[in-house]
Amino acid sequence: MRPPRVPPPALTAPRPAKLPRARGAPPRRRRRVCVLFALPFSWLIATLLPLPAQHPPVPPPVPAAPPAAAPAAAHPADQVHEQGRIRVFYQTSGHHAVDAGDANANGVPDRVEDVLTQALAAQKLWIEALGFPDPLASPRFAGANRIHIYLRHRADLPTRRDRENKSPRALNGKAYSAVARHRLDGDPPGSGCLQIRISSSIRASRGQTIAHEYFHLIQYGAFWFRPAWLLEGTARWSEKGLGEGALGPLGAFEVWPPREEEIAVLSRLDYSAAPVFWNPLVHSLETGGDAPLPDNAAIRELQTWRYTDGQPVLKDPRLTGWRFMRRLFAELSAAGDAALREEGYTKWTLANQRSPRNDPHILRAIGRALGPDAGNPGQ
Length: 379
Ligand SMILES: [Zn+2]
Known about the structure:
Elements: E1 31-32, H1 41-48, E2 79-83, E3 86-90, H2 110-129, E4 144-152, E5 159-160, E6 169-170, E7 173-175, E8 192-199, H3 209-222, H4 228-238, E9 254-256, H5 260-266, H6 273-283, H7 297-302, H8 322-342, H9 350-354, H10 359-370
Parallel strand pairs: 3-4, 4-8
Antiparallel strand pairs: 1-9, 2-3, 5-6, 7-8
Zinc ion binds at residues 212, 216, 232, 235.
């Protein structure tokens, strides 16, 4: 399902018209990000996005996360592999079957073990080690006490249109933002779960799909805003949490505060908002190189974890920007209350969650998370 075409977001406070800064003119006070990439933001966007050469109409908005309604979960052929608060549902024959390889001969396919391992690792990293809000403790998800991960044939996963609105492509994973009532025998009455669907062909040891989807659950529990440039951009950033390296590609020269025309482009990005906006932004906060993860017991334990093929689950103890991102999630949570009031929403419908009217609220929350010296967007 695709949302209707929406106009570029407008800042709530009217601003005087102004011309773009001319080449050679004194720069505004903006956060400088990477001198190696001394290129205008607009040039970078034009490079990353195959926009037409003339006055670029911005591409149609990419659908934000599909509706909160969770898919039919239970399947009679499902088997369950679980630990703690996370269950993986899988099948060993038929359409949804996973690779049956079981090198450690413990009766559970290695692919399934690795999916559970990455989900548990994401939980340990984000919640226990870094102090991000636990989605299972969010008031929004009251009644949910487990996370269910369903391994399903990729053809049965939702699709997403790319930025150029070409043919839809199947996702490798999808997290849902509603409490579902899928109980197993022995579960307390009324207990609920949060749901993730993952392609049954995923090899967790080779990517960060499960951790990416887990990060979406953190987002859903922490704040209501749902633009793709925020949800997918920061989820893509988060893949370096367990993944190799401290930060993904850096694209922009100056990103903060963004000008109005930059905000209009940013609001139409999804995953690419990570290299264009989020990565340069958090990079600018680091003065001493890549940021280490904290040296705490959870991180030390994670460093001992291995996938079934022996690869480490935590590739390295570095992640640039995690403190900022944690502050931002708290600011976005508070900003939701203000947006509800100031935009006249009666409740957080899906349309309200996706509305471009939220962008100024999100941008102000970023400014607050950056600190009082960061400047204001659109100036
Ligand atoms: Zn995503």
